[in-house]
Amino acid sequence: MAVLILFLLFFISILFLLSSLFLTGDDRRRHLPLPPGPKGWPLLGNLLQLNSKPHQTLQTLSRSHGSNGLLHLRLGTTTVIIISSSSAASKCFRNHDVNLSSRPPNSIGKHIAYNFQDLVMAPYGLRWRMLRKLFSAHLFSNKALNDFQYVRDEEVMRLVRDLAKRETTVVDIGEMVNSCVVNALARMIVGRRMIVEGEEATKFKEMATEMTRLAGQFNVGDFLPWIDWLDDIFIAGTDTTSITIEWILAELIRHPHILARAKQELDSIVGLNRLISELDLPKFSFLHDIIKENFRLHPTVPLSVPRMAIKDCEIDGYLIPKGATLFVNIWAIGRDPVSWPNDPLEFNPDRFGPGSLHENVDVKGNDFELIPFGAGRRICAGMNLGLRMVPLVTAVLVHSFDWKLLDGQMANMIDMEESYGVTMQKARPLMAKAVPRLQPEAYI
Ligand code: HEM
């Protein structure tokens, strides 16, 4: 009898061994747990837990319910995974990038992005690859960007002249910078300015409306259907850039000693007789530390553009199921004390200075504690342009003007409240007077 039981046990364990050998990776992963997360309501899931600033709420939920920067939520019927640490982000983009390179089929993609046909929302596949190649190999290659350097310098010069003319007036800085960025991009893409001189500077929303109105007269996409996908490029490329510059100036005006150091660097290299040009940018170092620090605290796309898992995968022993929507909380990663142990909420460009802990950290998707442009295959396609426009406009505005706030407003009273959207604006625009500080001939 004992021999029979032993034989049965042996037989069962062999069967078990064989069946586990023949289980596919997918079968094994399906038994893994989802990352932890807060309990939700029937049908709605965790939808009611998200308020008007989801990037902040998700940071709190991730700290209280997540594991190692991985959090699972159910929003209606959708499984959502939130990434809030550099270690989780590095696992996503280093180990599972292809799998996580698609976009979920949401309403933005359907109604705004030409039924998922544009570069930003297109699912991972042949069309996306083709558009991306067109974009980076031709439209925004280094050569094309170099060829249009004079266009960006010219548009920034117009901005400076426009500001200098309004010396006694308080201006909405974000709005004026936005016009400059829109015109620079428009000249690069369609060969003409979109916001004509003398016209009141227009926020992008109004510009988008204007573009639709122009459709009857001259809609580039209508006439050349193969480049209709470029319209979206305007959304991705202008708001992000001008909002970043507005945040930087707000931080600099709030921190006069940092602003003074920035001016000193620019003055010592360029002097006071001419405006800064894009060609000067590689000569500055403190300026670039300021820009990195701003990207860390005020990333313009706080929750990244959503990704979708093409098939099941495993991160840190948890299942990321096929079809799950994945958000990277870029904002929370930039403020994570694990990656940024020294006063992470302080605006301190010196954390990137020579000999500092983060001296070699860059923003190009290689260092996962600072990924304002995202990372992996779907990293921002306009990053190289953004990394020229943001430092250029910032440097020129800092070098050419002293910035005076409204009468009676102290620098430390600038409102730094965030307003959440796909792009994260200042809740209240930065208003200031630009007082010229260079030799008069520099503004001619
Ligand atoms: C400061 C400036 C900018 C910031 C912070 C920024 C940030 C981002 C982020 C976070 C993403 C999502 C990446 C991901 O899914 O991981 C993105 C995507 C994208 N951005 Fe930008 N962006 C900026 C400027 C621009 C400019 C100037 C353009 C073009 C003119 C542009 C075009 C795009 C496009 C086309 C995508 C979609 C890429 C794809 O899905 O393959 N961006 N950007």
Automatic annotation (TrEMBL):
Domain of life per record: Eukaryota
A Pfam family of this chain: p450
Cofactor: heme
GO MF terms, alphabetically ordered: heme binding; iron ion binding; monooxygenase activity; oxidoreductase activity, acting on paired donors, with incorporation or reduction of molecular oxygen
Binding site for heme: C380
Keywords: Heme, Iron, Metal-binding, Monooxygenase, NADP, Oxidoreductase
Keyword Mitochondrion: no
Xref: PANTHER family: CYTOCHROME P450 98A9, FLAVONOID 3'-MONOOXYGENASE
Family from the record: Belongs to the cytochrome P450 family.
Official protein name in the record: Flavonoid 3'-monooxygenase
Gene name per UniProt: CYP75B1
